[in-house]
Amino acid sequence: TTEELPSTDIITLTRHVLLDQLRLGTAATGDLTLLLTAIQVTSKFIATNVRRARLINLVGLAGETNVQGEEQKKLDVLANDIMVNALRASGKTAVLVSEELEDAIIIEERNKGRYCVVFDPLDGSSNIDAGVNIGTIFGIYAVRPGSSGTPEDVLRPGSEMVAAGYTMYGSSANLVLSTGSGVNGYTLDAALGEFILTHPDIKIPPRGKIYSFNEGNSMYFYPPVNAYLHSIKHPKTGSPYSARYIGSMVADVHRTLLYGGIFGYPDDKKNKSGKLRMLYEAFPMAFLTEQAGGLATTGTKRILDLVPKNIHERCPVFLGSRDDVRDVMKFYEADA
Ligand code: AHM
Ligand code: MG
Protein backbone atom coordinates (compact mmCIF):
# COMPACT_ATOMS: atom_id res chain seq x y z
CA THR A 1 0.00 0.00 0.00
CA THR A 2 1.05 3.61 -0.46
CA GLU A 3 1.46 4.17 3.31
CA GLU A 4 4.57 2.06 3.27
CA LEU A 5 6.32 4.13 0.63
CA PRO A 6 8.62 6.86 1.88
CA SER A 7 7.56 10.41 1.19
CA THR A 8 9.19 11.83 -1.92
CA ASP A 9 8.44 15.39 -0.91
CA ILE A 10 10.80 15.88 1.99
CA ILE A 11 11.51 19.40 3.14
CA THR A 12 15.14 19.83 4.13
CA LEU A 13 16.31 22.65 6.35
CA THR A 14 18.18 24.28 3.47
CA ARG A 15 15.13 24.16 1.19
CA HIS A 16 12.94 25.54 3.95
CA VAL A 17 15.24 28.41 4.88
CA LEU A 18 15.79 29.32 1.22
CA LEU A 19 12.05 29.41 0.59
CA ASP A 20 11.56 31.50 3.72
CA GLN A 21 14.12 34.00 2.53
CA LEU A 22 12.54 34.19 -0.93
CA ARG A 23 9.14 34.71 0.61
CA LEU A 24 10.37 37.43 2.92
CA GLY A 25 12.45 39.03 0.17
CA THR A 26 15.61 38.70 2.24
CA ALA A 27 17.27 36.31 -0.18
CA ALA A 28 19.37 39.08 -1.77
CA THR A 29 22.61 37.25 -1.10
CA GLY A 30 21.64 33.89 0.32
CA ASP A 31 24.44 34.51 2.81
CA LEU A 32 22.36 33.48 5.79
CA THR A 33 21.48 30.20 4.07
CA LEU A 34 25.15 29.48 3.48
CA LEU A 35 25.94 30.31 7.09
CA LEU A 36 23.17 28.00 8.30
CA THR A 37 24.54 25.29 6.02
CA ALA A 38 27.87 25.59 7.84
CA ILE A 39 26.09 25.34 11.20
CA GLN A 40 24.22 22.23 10.01
CA VAL A 41 27.50 20.58 9.08
CA THR A 42 28.92 21.26 12.54
CA SER A 43 25.78 19.80 14.15
CA LYS A 44 26.11 16.62 12.08
CA PHE A 45 29.76 16.35 13.05
CA ILE A 46 29.05 16.89 16.74
CA ALA A 47 26.06 14.49 16.67
CA THR A 48 28.24 11.76 15.19
CA ASN A 49 30.99 12.29 17.72
CA VAL A 50 28.64 12.48 20.71
CA ARG A 51 27.28 9.11 19.60
CA ARG A 52 30.75 7.65 19.19
CA ALA A 53 32.08 9.27 22.34
CA ARG A 54 32.03 6.18 24.50
CA LEU A 55 33.53 3.95 21.84
CA ILE A 56 36.39 6.17 20.86
CA ASN A 57 36.95 7.47 24.35
CA LEU A 58 36.38 11.16 23.83
CA VAL A 59 34.83 11.43 27.23
CA GLY A 60 38.05 11.99 29.13
CA LEU A 61 39.62 15.27 30.07
CA ALA A 62 41.21 17.45 27.43
CA GLY A 63 44.96 17.18 27.67
CA GLU A 64 44.97 13.44 28.32
CA THR A 65 47.03 11.31 25.98
CA ASN A 66 45.74 8.17 24.28
CA VAL A 67 47.65 4.97 23.56
CA GLN A 68 48.91 6.31 20.25
CA GLY A 69 50.43 9.20 22.15
CA GLU A 70 48.01 11.64 20.51
CA GLU A 71 46.33 14.28 22.56
CA GLN A 72 42.69 13.49 23.08
CA LYS A 73 40.14 16.18 22.82
CA LYS A 74 37.29 16.41 25.19
CA LEU A 75 33.99 16.57 23.34
CA ASP A 76 33.39 20.22 24.15
CA VAL A 77 36.82 21.20 22.85
CA LEU A 78 36.18 19.18 19.69
CA ALA A 79 32.76 20.81 19.27
CA ASN A 80 34.28 24.26 19.71
CA ASP A 81 37.03 23.59 17.18
CA ILE A 82 34.70 22.29 14.48
CA MET A 83 32.43 25.30 14.90
CA VAL A 84 35.21 27.85 14.75
CA ASN A 85 36.76 26.18 11.71
CA ALA A 86 33.51 25.69 9.80
CA LEU A 87 32.18 29.17 10.55
CA ARG A 88 35.47 30.79 9.58
CA ALA A 89 35.67 28.74 6.37
CA SER A 90 32.09 29.63 5.42
CA GLY A 91 33.34 33.11 4.55
CA LYS A 92 30.13 34.52 6.01
CA THR A 93 31.25 35.52 9.49
CA ALA A 94 33.06 38.51 10.95
CA VAL A 95 32.96 37.85 14.71
CA LEU A 96 32.68 34.58 16.65
CA VAL A 97 31.96 34.27 20.36
CA SER A 98 32.17 30.85 22.01
CA GLU A 99 31.58 29.81 25.61
CA GLU A 100 34.85 27.91 25.32
CA LEU A 101 36.97 30.93 24.36
CA GLU A 102 37.76 33.86 26.60
CA ASP A 103 37.98 36.39 23.77
CA ALA A 104 35.90 36.99 20.67
CA ILE A 105 37.48 35.81 17.41
CA ILE A 106 37.71 38.50 14.75
CA ILE A 107 37.78 36.80 11.35
CA GLU A 108 40.67 37.80 9.12
CA GLU A 109 40.00 39.84 6.01
CA ARG A 110 40.15 37.07 3.40
CA ASN A 111 37.46 34.98 5.14
CA LYS A 112 35.36 37.85 6.41
CA GLY A 113 31.58 37.99 5.96
CA ARG A 114 28.83 40.08 7.50
CA TYR A 115 27.49 37.90 10.31
CA CYS A 116 28.46 37.41 13.93
CA VAL A 117 27.78 34.04 15.53
CA VAL A 118 27.61 33.56 19.31
CA PHE A 119 27.48 29.97 20.50
CA ASP A 120 27.83 27.42 23.24
CA PRO A 121 29.31 24.51 21.28
CA LEU A 122 28.29 21.79 23.73
CA ASP A 123 26.00 22.89 26.51
CA GLY A 124 25.24 20.62 29.43
CA SER A 125 28.53 18.78 29.03
CA SER A 126 28.46 17.61 32.66
CA ASN A 127 25.74 15.24 31.39
CA ILE A 128 27.85 13.55 28.70
CA ASP A 129 29.12 10.63 30.74
CA ALA A 130 25.58 9.66 31.74
CA GLY A 131 24.37 9.67 28.14
CA VAL A 132 21.90 12.48 28.84
CA ASN A 133 20.87 14.89 26.08
CA ILE A 134 23.22 17.78 25.40
CA GLY A 135 23.19 20.45 22.72
CA THR A 136 24.68 23.31 20.76
CA ILE A 137 23.11 26.76 21.17
CA PHE A 138 23.68 29.60 18.68
CA GLY A 139 22.60 33.14 17.89
CA ILE A 140 23.34 35.22 14.80
CA TYR A 141 23.70 39.00 14.45
CA ALA A 142 24.42 40.96 11.29
CA VAL A 143 27.40 43.31 11.72
CA ARG A 144 26.31 46.90 12.27
CA PRO A 145 26.27 49.07 9.13
CA GLY A 146 29.75 50.40 8.49
CA SER A 147 31.41 48.08 10.99
CA SER A 148 34.19 45.76 9.87
CA GLY A 149 33.35 43.37 12.70
CA THR A 150 34.29 44.09 16.32
CA PRO A 151 33.15 42.65 19.67
CA GLU A 152 30.75 45.61 19.91
CA ASP A 153 28.77 44.02 17.07
CA VAL A 154 27.54 41.41 19.54
CA LEU A 155 27.18 43.63 22.61
CA ARG A 156 23.64 44.37 21.48
CA PRO A 157 20.16 43.40 22.66
CA GLY A 158 19.03 39.88 21.81
CA SER A 159 16.06 41.35 19.94
CA GLU A 160 18.54 42.41 17.23
CA MET A 161 19.51 38.82 16.44
CA VAL A 162 18.55 37.78 12.90
CA ALA A 163 18.38 34.08 13.78
CA ALA A 164 18.80 31.76 16.73
CA GLY A 165 18.58 28.05 17.38
CA TYR A 166 19.93 24.95 18.97
CA THR A 167 20.68 21.37 18.07
CA MET A 168 19.84 18.75 20.67
CA TYR A 169 21.83 15.53 20.58
CA GLY A 170 19.51 12.84 21.90
CA SER A 171 18.06 9.66 20.50
CA SER A 172 18.04 11.72 17.32
CA ALA A 173 19.62 15.09 16.53
CA ASN A 174 17.01 17.84 16.48
CA LEU A 175 17.75 21.29 15.12
CA VAL A 176 15.30 23.99 16.18
CA LEU A 177 15.62 27.31 14.37
CA SER A 178 14.04 30.72 14.05
CA THR A 179 14.99 33.30 11.47
CA GLY A 180 12.47 35.71 12.96
CA SER A 181 9.27 34.35 11.44
CA GLY A 182 8.26 31.55 13.78
CA VAL A 183 10.09 28.45 14.96
CA ASN A 184 10.66 25.20 13.08
CA GLY A 185 12.16 21.91 14.18
CA TYR A 186 14.17 19.56 11.96
CA THR A 187 15.34 16.03 12.65
CA LEU A 188 18.56 14.62 11.27
CA ASP A 189 17.92 11.72 8.91
CA ALA A 190 21.19 9.92 9.42
CA ALA A 191 20.88 7.95 6.17
CA LEU A 192 20.31 11.07 4.07
CA GLY A 193 22.58 13.24 6.17
CA GLU A 194 19.95 15.97 6.02
CA PHE A 195 17.88 17.80 8.61
CA ILE A 196 14.24 17.19 7.63
CA LEU A 197 11.35 19.44 8.68
CA THR A 198 9.49 17.42 11.32
CA HIS A 199 8.12 20.12 13.66
CA PRO A 200 6.75 22.96 11.51
CA ASP A 201 5.69 26.18 13.22
CA ILE A 202 6.23 25.24 16.87
CA LYS A 203 3.88 27.10 19.23
CA ILE A 204 4.18 26.90 23.03
CA PRO A 205 0.87 26.15 24.77
CA PRO A 206 -0.28 29.35 26.55
CA ARG A 207 -0.15 27.51 29.88
CA GLY A 208 1.65 24.34 30.89
CA LYS A 209 1.73 21.91 33.80
CA ILE A 210 5.47 21.48 34.25
CA TYR A 211 8.08 23.52 36.12
CA SER A 212 11.79 23.09 35.53
CA PHE A 213 14.12 24.64 38.14
CA ASN A 214 17.11 23.38 40.09
CA GLU A 215 15.13 23.44 43.32
CA GLY A 216 18.15 22.20 45.22
CA ASN A 217 19.13 25.87 45.21
CA SER A 218 15.93 27.02 46.92
CA MET A 219 17.73 27.96 50.16
CA TYR A 220 19.50 30.60 48.06
CA PHE A 221 16.45 31.69 46.03
CA TYR A 222 14.92 35.12 46.67
CA PRO A 223 11.38 35.29 48.14
CA PRO A 224 9.45 35.84 44.87
CA VAL A 225 10.89 32.66 43.37
CA ASN A 226 10.13 30.52 46.41
CA ALA A 227 6.66 32.06 46.71
CA TYR A 228 5.99 31.29 43.04
CA LEU A 229 7.22 27.70 43.39
CA HIS A 230 5.04 27.26 46.47
CA SER A 231 2.02 28.54 44.51
CA ILE A 232 2.35 25.91 41.78
CA LYS A 233 3.02 23.08 44.22
CA HIS A 234 0.14 24.03 46.53
CA PRO A 235 -2.49 25.46 44.16
CA LYS A 236 -5.74 26.78 45.62
CA THR A 237 -7.62 24.88 42.90
CA GLY A 238 -6.63 22.09 40.55
CA SER A 239 -3.60 19.86 40.75
CA PRO A 240 0.03 20.80 41.41
CA TYR A 241 2.58 21.17 38.62
CA SER A 242 4.96 18.34 37.76
CA ALA A 243 8.72 18.79 38.23
CA ARG A 244 11.03 18.00 35.31
CA TYR A 245 14.66 19.09 35.43
CA ILE A 246 17.28 17.53 33.22
CA GLY A 247 20.02 20.05 33.97
CA SER A 248 20.78 20.41 30.30
CA MET A 249 19.32 23.69 29.08
CA VAL A 250 18.75 22.55 25.52
CA ALA A 251 16.75 19.52 26.67
CA ASP A 252 14.79 21.44 29.31
CA VAL A 253 13.95 24.23 26.85
CA HIS A 254 13.11 21.75 24.08
CA ARG A 255 10.55 20.07 26.31
CA THR A 256 9.20 23.47 27.37
CA LEU A 257 8.71 24.54 23.73
CA LEU A 258 6.84 21.34 22.90
CA TYR A 259 4.84 20.70 26.10
CA GLY A 260 4.65 24.14 27.68
CA GLY A 261 5.34 25.12 31.28
CA ILE A 262 8.19 27.14 32.71
CA PHE A 263 11.97 26.77 32.80
CA GLY A 264 13.85 28.90 35.30
CA TYR A 265 17.40 29.62 36.34
CA PRO A 266 17.04 32.61 38.66
CA ASP A 267 19.68 34.81 40.21
CA ASP A 268 20.01 34.02 43.90
CA LYS A 269 21.91 34.86 47.09
CA LYS A 270 24.89 32.86 45.87
CA ASN A 271 24.89 33.57 42.12
CA LYS A 272 24.15 37.26 41.90
CA SER A 273 23.51 37.17 38.14
CA GLY A 274 22.28 33.60 37.89
CA LYS A 275 24.27 30.99 35.99
CA LEU A 276 23.28 31.10 32.35
CA ARG A 277 25.15 33.23 29.85
CA MET A 278 23.22 36.09 28.33
CA LEU A 279 24.67 36.12 24.83
CA TYR A 280 24.80 32.47 23.81
CA GLU A 281 22.38 30.77 26.22
CA ALA A 282 19.67 33.19 27.39
CA PHE A 283 19.29 35.27 24.18
CA PRO A 284 18.91 32.41 21.66
CA MET A 285 16.47 30.54 23.92
CA ALA A 286 14.51 33.74 24.66
CA PHE A 287 14.39 34.49 20.91
CA LEU A 288 12.99 31.01 20.15
CA THR A 289 10.53 31.18 23.06
CA GLU A 290 9.09 34.53 21.96
CA GLN A 291 8.95 33.36 18.34
CA ALA A 292 6.94 30.36 19.53
CA GLY A 293 4.45 32.62 21.34
CA GLY A 294 5.92 32.39 24.84
CA LEU A 295 7.71 34.86 27.12
CA ALA A 296 11.23 35.16 28.49
CA THR A 297 12.07 37.40 31.45
CA THR A 298 14.65 38.00 34.15
CA GLY A 299 11.67 38.27 36.52
CA THR A 300 11.43 42.01 36.03
CA LYS A 301 12.77 42.68 32.51
CA ARG A 302 12.34 41.21 29.04
CA ILE A 303 15.49 39.20 28.36
CA LEU A 304 15.76 40.25 24.69
CA ASP A 305 15.95 43.92 25.77
CA LEU A 306 19.07 43.40 27.88
CA VAL A 307 22.35 44.78 26.56
CA PRO A 308 25.42 42.71 27.47
CA LYS A 309 28.42 44.68 28.69
CA ASN A 310 30.80 41.81 28.10
CA ILE A 311 30.56 38.67 26.02
CA HIS A 312 30.41 36.18 28.89
CA GLU A 313 27.93 38.08 31.09
CA ARG A 314 25.23 36.06 32.90
CA CYS A 315 21.57 36.83 33.53
CA PRO A 316 18.56 35.32 35.33
CA VAL A 317 16.19 33.35 33.08
CA PHE A 318 12.51 32.43 33.27
CA LEU A 319 10.99 31.29 29.99
CA GLY A 320 8.12 29.29 28.63
CA SER A 321 4.33 29.42 28.41
CA ARG A 322 2.95 32.97 28.39
CA ASP A 323 0.65 32.57 31.40
CA ASP A 324 3.19 30.70 33.51
CA VAL A 325 5.86 33.35 32.93
CA ARG A 326 3.34 36.10 33.70
CA ASP A 327 2.63 34.36 36.99
CA VAL A 328 6.24 34.46 38.10
CA MET A 329 6.46 38.13 37.04
CA LYS A 330 3.50 38.90 39.31
CA PHE A 331 5.43 37.57 42.29
CA TYR A 332 8.31 39.89 41.42
CA GLU A 333 5.92 42.84 41.07
CA ALA A 334 4.36 42.07 44.45
CA ASP A 335 7.84 41.95 45.98
CA ALA A 336 9.02 45.28 44.50
P1 AHM B 1 27.49 24.64 31.18
O1 AHM B 1 27.52 25.70 30.12
O2 AHM B 1 28.67 24.67 32.10
O3 AHM B 1 27.21 23.27 30.58
O4 AHM B 1 26.27 25.02 32.16
C1 AHM B 1 25.02 25.30 31.62
C2 AHM B 1 24.04 24.27 32.08
C3 AHM B 1 22.71 24.37 31.41
O5 AHM B 1 22.63 23.47 30.32
C4 AHM B 1 21.75 23.98 32.48
O6 AHM B 1 20.50 24.62 32.31
C5 AHM B 1 22.43 24.43 33.74
O7 AHM B 1 23.80 24.50 33.45
C6 AHM B 1 22.25 23.49 34.89
O8 AHM B 1 22.88 24.00 36.01
P2 AHM B 1 22.75 23.30 37.43
O9 AHM B 1 23.56 22.05 37.36
O10 AHM B 1 23.29 24.32 38.39
O11 AHM B 1 21.29 23.03 37.68
MG1 MG C 1 26.75 26.30 28.58
Automatic annotation (TrEMBL):
<dbReference type="GO" id="GO:0006094">
    <property type="term" value="P:gluconeogenesis"/>
</dbReference>
<keyword id="KW-0479">Metal-binding</keyword>
<keyword id="KW-0119">Carbohydrate metabolism</keyword>
<dbReference type="InterPro" id="IPR020548">
    <property type="entry name" value="Fructose_bisphosphatase_AS"/>
</dbReference>
<dbReference type="InterPro" id="IPR033391">
    <property type="entry name" value="FBPase_N"/>
</dbReference>
<dbReference type="GO" id="GO:0005986">
    <property type="term" value="P:sucrose biosynthetic process"/>
</dbReference>
<dbReference type="InterPro" id="IPR044015">
    <property type="entry name" value="FBPase_C_dom"/>
</dbReference>
<comment type="similarity">
    <text>Belongs to the FBPase class 1 family.</text>
</comment>
<dbReference type="InterPro" id="IPR028343">
    <property type="entry name" value="FBPtase"/>
</dbReference>
<feature type="domain" description="Fructose-1-6-bisphosphatase class 1 C-terminal">
    <location>
        <begin position="204"/>
        <end position="332"/>
    </location>
</feature>
<dbReference type="GO" id="GO:0042132">
    <property type="term" value="F:fructose 1,6-bisphosphate 1-phosphatase activity"/>
</dbReference>
<dbReference type="GO" id="GO:0046872">
    <property type="term" value="F:metal ion binding"/>
</dbReference>
<protein>
    <recommendedName>
        <fullName>Fructose-1,6-bisphosphatase</fullName>
        <ecNumber>3.1.3.11</ecNumber>
    </recommendedName>
</protein>
<dbReference type="GO" id="GO:0006002">
    <property type="term" value="P:fructose 6-phosphate metabolic process"/>
</dbReference>
<dbReference type="GO" id="GO:0030388">
    <property type="term" value="P:fructose 1,6-bisphosphate metabolic process"/>
</dbReference>
<dbReference type="Pfam" id="PF00316">
    <property type="entry name" value="FBPase"/>
</dbReference>
<keyword id="KW-0460">Magnesium</keyword>
<comment type="subunit">
    <text>Homotetramer.</text>
</comment>
<feature type="domain" description="Fructose-1-6-bisphosphatase class I N-terminal">
    <location>
        <begin position="11"/>
        <end position="200"/>
    </location>
</feature>
<dbReference type="InterPro" id="IPR000146">
    <property type="entry name" value="FBPase_class-1"/>
</dbReference>
<dbReference type="GO" id="GO:0006000">
    <property type="term" value="P:fructose metabolic process"/>
</dbReference>
<dbReference type="Pfam" id="PF18913">
    <property type="entry name" value="FBPase_C"/>
</dbReference>
<keyword id="KW-0378">Hydrolase</keyword>
<comment type="pathway">
    <text>Carbohydrate biosynthesis.</text>
</comment>
<dbReference type="GO" id="GO:0005829">
    <property type="term" value="C:cytosol"/>
</dbReference>
<keyword id="KW-0963">Cytoplasm</keyword>
